[in-house]
Amino acid sequence: MSATAAAPPTRQSPSSFSERLKSATWGDHEAAEQHGFTQALIEGDLPLDGYTAMVAQHYFAYLALEEVGRALSGHPVTAPFLQPELERVPALEQDLAHLLGDGWQDLVRPSAPTRTYVARLHQMADHPAGFVAHHYTRYLGDVSGGQFISRAARRTYGLTDGAGVRFYDFRALGSLPKFRARYRESLDALELPEAEEHFLLREARLAYQLNTEVLADLGRVCTP
Q1: In Å, how far from its chain's centre is CA 101?
Q2: Does residue 206 have a pLDDT over 70?
Q3: Which of 6, 10, 64, 77 is most open to solvent, judged by the fewest CB atoms within 10 Å of its CB?
Q4: What is the distance between the alpha carbons of residues 170 and 156, in angstroms, rounded to a whole number?
């Protein structure tokens, strides 16, 4: 659900697994990046209610993603990708409290596409490689392109001192380029059977599709 500034994959056959993953999902990545809802947000045309609705849907998705991550924290496939500094639920709770006030929990509900997405995330508790696909799709997008969304939201809605955009604050990770490099190294170090590699690649594409369906629903409800 975030726009990114990543460069497209090269035309040469990708050699590392991280390159193959990027190449396999590039078209889906662009579809999410260029979605009308995302563009309205980036261009300052999205009402505050629309931004708030997106934050709420993020909240439900990350509740599920991080719950499954904790369940898989001891698994050798998933453990290299999990670190407390990445977790987003506390920041999302602060953002929703700022945007909606006290009692925000009673004002937010997952949309139908978000419920579908959350159900798929819970299924990944039995599929560590699939969990990595969803982890990659969400966190790498937010660490990268999420910074564009943060700047757009602060500019459009007058959000100051980080209030309302704490979700995009990854300063606890240190250097973001170095974090992304380490993340790609962890992907390249995965030792998966071929069938599991293919499953991870397919699941990453599905993750983009599910996220795009959430955006499409938000667009129908929230864009001018």
Answers
A1: 24
A2: yes
A3: 10
A4: 21
Is 184 annotated for ligand binding? Answer: yes
Query: Does 136 belong to an annotated binding site?
Result: yes
pLDDT at 2: 44
pLDDT the model gives residue 147: 87
Return the residue matching tokens 């726009």. 3
Q: 167, 95 in Cβ contact below 8 A?
A: yes
At the second CATH level, the architecture of 17-222 is: Up-down Bundle (1.20)
Instruction: Please give the model's pTM, rounded to 2 decimal places.
Output: 0.90
Return the HEC string of the chain: CCCCCCCCCCCCCCCCHHHHHHHHHHHHHHHHHCCHHHHHHHCCCCCHHHHHHHHHHHHHHHHHHHHHHHHCCCCCCCHHHCCHHHCCHHHHHHHHHHHHCCCHHHCCCCCHHHHHHHHHHHHHHHCHHHHHHHHHHHHHHHHHCHHHHHHHHHHHHCCCCCCCCHHHCCHHHCCHHHHHHHHHHHHHCCCCCHHHHHHHHHHHHHHHHHHHHHHHHHHHHHCC
Q: Is 198 annotated as a binding residue?
A: no
Instruction: Tell me which amino acid residue 170 is.
Output: F
pLDDT in tens, 24-49: 887 766 666 666 898 899 999 999 99
**Residue 111, by phi and psi: left (phi above 0), alpha (psi -120 to 50) or beta?**
beta
Residue from 79, 82, 78 nearest 196 by CA: 78
